[in-house]
Amino acid sequence: MAMAALGAAACLALFPAGATTPDSIRAPAAVPDSVRGRVMAPESAPSRVSVPESVGATAVISAAASNRLRMAAPPEPARGRTAAALRFLPVGAATPAPTAPVLDREFADPDVVAVGGVFHAYATNVAGRNVQHATSTDLVHWTVDEQDVLPVLGDWVRPDPPHDVWAPEVFDNGDGFTLQYTARDRVGGRQCIGAALASSPDGPFRPAGDGALVCPTEAGGAIDASSYTENGTRHLLWKSDGNCCRLDTWLHIQPVSWDGTRVTGEPVRLLRQDRGWEGGLVEAPTLVKRDGRYVLLYSAGDYRTAAYATGWAIADTLTGPYVKGDEPLLTTTSFSGVIGGPGGQDVVTGPGGRDRILFHGRGADPSRRALYVADLGFADGRPVVRGSKTLYEAELARVHRATVREAKDAWGDRAVGHIDEADSFVEFRVYAASSGPHTLTVRYGNGSLDAAGAPAAATHGLTVNGAAAGAVDYPYTGWDAWQPREVPVELHEGWNTLRLSKGERYAELDAVQVA
Hints:
With 515 residues, the protein is mainly beta. It is built from 1 helix and 33 strands. 1% of the residues lie in helices and 42% in strands. A hairpin with a 6-residue loop joins strand 8 and strand 9.
């Protein structure tokens, strides 16, 4: 993201120590693990009733009027991916959940291109270099190039030290390599997108053309170039930098020449800021096509704070309409606070053919945006990132001999109670981007009392893909006073089945999250 996108006077500010995500970002998957609302007085156990079995909805638009998506699993196991489609990879091919950066230095707005078995990463300016460059053969171990791969800027650029160049995009154009970059326009004073060419991904890249590639001064300028190709046509995605001057920010797609140095058609608007968590702007578009759908990833919020996050939207056609997900994909809270302000993402096919997402975030040293990598999967088009919590609401799961009810302070305003019979259960179909250990977070309420009328703990039995996996213990909370409980689970790549069944005493389920 271009730091100056927040206004010409904006400069890099330190990520505040101990900063938390503001309330506006609290979509379901990003809700902090704390109880909202007071703890209720002890109540008696719920009455025991039997209800018909119900099956959760499929991964489609759950509320058409809201034009949003929420995560739900296929209604039948047969809709899960086949063994061949899962493409289980050799040991070591998967990347664990990100807990530490793979490049622990300032490396914001990463873009990655693979050339001959080597991954080349480029990033926003630092230490006098307009564009940073690093290489890796596995996306985990990196060698930093101390040379500036864009030593000379186009004549259209107004020097704006020390923050001249932002958000690079590099691709193989067939005859060499193209770098698209954001810098300040000499004439209009806005941030705009230019192009440069090189014979090698190592550079040096030299300016192409007499002026900026995209420079809509009246819309606030343009930043955050990204490339997408389909049917022999290259498209440029970009953001109108309207937040510089109290205008909307739009993500656009526009046809360009194959070398990306000339526009060949008019831009089409894809989406703009319209969610509270987005903090008044959207930016950093990344477009891929998976499972027959177009998946548009984007960043939003104030890049200087923990509120910066990554969202997603899907469409059936290239130019939309794009429908946003109910909750962001990557947030400070979805990473349990380990990674602050995750954004500026890029998607690349990694070793073994696995999708990986690379993004910047703030870790142990909050003053810099370091480089992170994680496994990325697509559940019928919906992106899932290993290590980032994905929400599955209990009322959308398979509910057997239990009750879906309206529930105070529950996510989605509903929960599942009366899980009281010996054969009562709630069964979730959850998606894993890659095989291995994951964390299951159960959001529960427990108002159980013991024989003496004192608050008591409860349990649910847990099975994973049909195998017993122990019990989940629930300390007393009171009814409708939801709390999280974390347990480790072993999942395989693709769809998995998690069942929570009647255990000791009584507990209700609001949702589960998998990371």
